[in-house]
Write a structure and sequence with these properties.
The complex is a heterodimer of chains A (185) and B (440). Chain A is mainly alpha-helical and 185 residues long. Chain A has 2 domains: 88 residues, Orthogonal Bundle (Rna Polymerase Sigma Factor, Chain: A), CATH 1.10.1740; 86 residues, Arc Repressor Mutant, subunit A (Orthogonal Bundle), CATH 1.10.10. Chain A has 9 helices and no strands. In chain A, helix 2 crosses helix 3 and helix 2 crosses helix 4. Chain B contains 8 helices and 23 strands. Among the domains of chain B are: 94 residues, no CATH class; 86 residues, no CATH class. Chain B has 440 residues and is an alpha+beta fold. Classes of the chains: A mainly alpha (185), B alpha+beta (440).
């Protein structure tokens, strides 16, 4: 079923929409959640929360892109669960990816407000759009989706060193741009 | 060496949440979703997780308990359906900021005939559905559901109210026009306060007579829903839909078929499906002595791989006696809409008429047949705005929209005769969202 029809069903308050979302995006939800959360129970809870959140949010929300909407919602909810339950310490893979990503600002930069996080997000988007598509894709797979280098290698066919070099260069470009726009000390 | 991640620096991770939607969408479409990472399996952690799970479940129940109250006091669904700002409404009334760059209204073409001026001025056909010679528009209020019947000239011919039951916190509706009168299907769901706030859902079929009186009002068994089809037979109605599998936690569903007599007696029911899988009706057609149903029964899938399906043609008589079950291929299942039949023959894809802009078929895009020409009625965006919602379970920036309803007349060859539009933006809802955001 196409996304427009699913949204139409949500607007009609038809629970079939939830079944369609589960069928179409259930795998994506669980995958994104599994890269942040370590426990099966947490992953299932996260995906169930998202179904409820979607049911409550649409309408009045009317997302232009349902896939991005769900992807972002799952990622956010998964991070929220880690924060709420201090699951950060449970060995979720997000810690490793987080360490690596944060190392681009290991000089002590602090983003203390949501507003700053949003602005940083806009800058990161801009840097990604200015770079080549391949670098953008590798960055997204590693840091947004939380995929391992091995998984990226298997899917893209690139060597590990090439992937790591691309990620390093992108992180550097982001750090430089964040610095220019006043984020680094 | 691992860094000690300071809470402030986690904000940088959150910055990734604000990456542009377009990038997320493009990339998600491109990246193949692999098998999820094997979760940690450790007894100690499992017990800790159980406590955490129970805490979360308790919070969720509290949240769910609040839903009926929120639904009562903040009737957003109602606002959406009754939110006809109309041509007379505007941002002055609500003091809503117009987005930068203004509103992008569609170009008006030709002269609107006199007989349509009032319909358009009042935006009467906003989100209305065409059934035979009449249109039906549904409006939700806190007290009741109201169905307005119009003729094609915009005269209200009938008004039917259906009271909102106290416990029914959400209802979806489909209009099913039977030969003798109107049948409406509701999907009812609510939290049962007397049973640990367990979610209860079931299908309800209501039939009205021509005066708007209820002929019958029946509830199908718990777990039923998704009735997209109705086959009208000589002695009643066949409803093919779905039913949740018992003990299912992940929306597994079987096909459920109900046969109703004309007075609403449930004469027979049939349940078909693969245990533990999602099974559905992909299409349904009437035959001389019953119906042919095209069933899509899910094969067992492993892990998170995409599901595959077995297809069957399922012939039943009027009383649901099975005549024949034939395995078929996907190609043998007739395609569903959105298509429009004009004069009972021509098949018009909606895109043929609205290729020059994006119409929003979420709200119902209709083609009304006037003999020599057809009138297209549909909504489109005139602009959008971002709202950041705090406190929701998923903290994400959302887009909401300014809209207009387009009225466009076409010849049956698809040539545009005239086109105009009326502002249908729900300014009240925008105001409410902006106020909520300001509070946060």
């Amino acid at each position: 079923m196409d996304d427009k029809r699913i949204i139409e069903l949500l607007f009609a308050r038809d629970e079939q929409a939830l079944r369609e979302i589960e069928e179409k995006y259930g795998g994506l939800c669980r995958y994104i959640a599994s890269n942040v959360l370590a426990m099966n129970e947490d992953i299932e809870e996260c995906c169930n929360d998202i179904l409820l959140a979607i049911w409550n949010a649409i309408p009045p929300d009317c997302p232009a892109d349902l896939r991005a909407y769900i992807g972002k919602a799952v990622r956010n909810r998964a991070h929220e669960i880690t924060r709420e339950a201090n699951a950060w310490k449970r060995g979720g893979r997000v810690q490793i990816v987080g360490d690596e990503f944060l190392s681009l600002l290991d000089d002590g930069t602090d983003l203390v407000s949501e507003f700053e996080a949003k602005r940083a997000g806009e800058i990161i988007s801009r840097v990604l759009d200015e770079g080549n598509r391949q670098d953008k894709k590798l960055f997204f797979m590693r840091y947004w989706m939380g995929m391992s280098i091995e998984q990226i290698r298997d899917q893209t066919g690139f060597g590990e060193s090439r992937i790591k070099m691309s990620l390093f260069r992108t992180r550097k470009r982001i750090a430089a741009q964040l610095g220019k726009e006043g984020f680094t000390k | 060496m691992r860094m000690n991640i300071k809470p402030e620096n986690r904000r940088l991770l959150e910055a990734l949440d604000y990456i542009d939607d377009k990038i997320v969408s493009d990339m998600l479409a491109e990246v193949k979703v692999p098998e999820p990472i094997s979760p940690v399996r450790d007894k100690k952690v499992t017990r800790r997780s159980l406590r955490y799970f129970l805490t979360l479940a308790a919070c969720l129940m509290l949240l769910i308990a609040a839903v009926p109250i929120i639904t009562y006091f903040v009737p957003r669904i109602g606002i959406i359906f009754s939110g006809n700002a109309g041509a007379g409404s505007g941002t002055d009334e609500y003091d809503i900021p117009i987005p930068e760059g203004g509103l992008n209204f569609i170009e008006h073409v030709g002269e609107v005939p006199e007989e349509f001026k009032e319909i358009i001025e009042d935006n009467l056909f906003l989100r209305a559905y065409v059934y035979g010679d009449h249109l039906i528009r549904y409006v939700w209020t806190k007290e009741e559901h109201v169905f307005y019947f119009f003729d094609k000239s915009g005269n209200i011919t009938r008004q039917v109210g259906y009271p909102e039951s106290e416990k029914q916190i959400s209802m979806s509706r489909k209009f099913i026009d039977s030969e003798d009168n109107m049948l409406v299907y509701f999907a009812v769901s609510y939290q049962d306060k007397n049973n640990d706030y367990k979610m209860v859902s079931y299908a309800k079929i209501v039939k009205f007579d021509t005066d708007g009186k209820i002929v019958f009002d029946i509830n199908l068994p718990e777990g039923t829903g998704g009735f997209d089809y109705m086959i009208e037979t000589d002695d009643g109605y066949i409803f093919p839909g779905g039913i949740n599998e018992k003990k299912s936690k992940t929306h597994k569903e079987d096909v459920f078929i109900a046969k109703l007599s004309r007075d609403g007696t449930v004469q027979n029911t049939v349940t078909i499906g693969t245990s533990g899988e999602y099974d559905t009706v992909c299409n349904a057609e009437k035959t001389d002595n019953g119906a042919v149903l095209y069933l899509c029964l899910q094969k067992t899938k492993k892990g998170y791989t995409r599901a595959t399906w077995n297809y069957y043609r399922y012939d039943v008589k009027n009383d649901l006696t099975v005549e024949n079950i034939t395995p078929i291929t996907e190609n043998d299942v007739p395609e569903r809409g959105p298509f429009y039949f004009i004069d009972g023959k021509g098949l018009y894809s909606i895109n043929e008429f609205i290729a020059d802009y994006d119409a929003l078929d979420y709200f119902g895009v209709e083609l009304i047949d006037y003999g020599d020409f057809v009138l297209f009625v549909g909504d489109r965006y005139t602009s959008d705005y971002d709202i950041i919602k705090d406190g929701a379970s998923a903290i994400i920036p959302i887009k909401s929209y300014y809209t207009e309803t387009v009225y466009a007349a076409y010849t049956k060859d698809g040539e545009l005769i005239w086109r105009t539009a009326v502002d249908s933006t729900n300014y009240e809802m925008i105001k409410e969202l902006l106020e909520e955001q300001e509070k946060n």
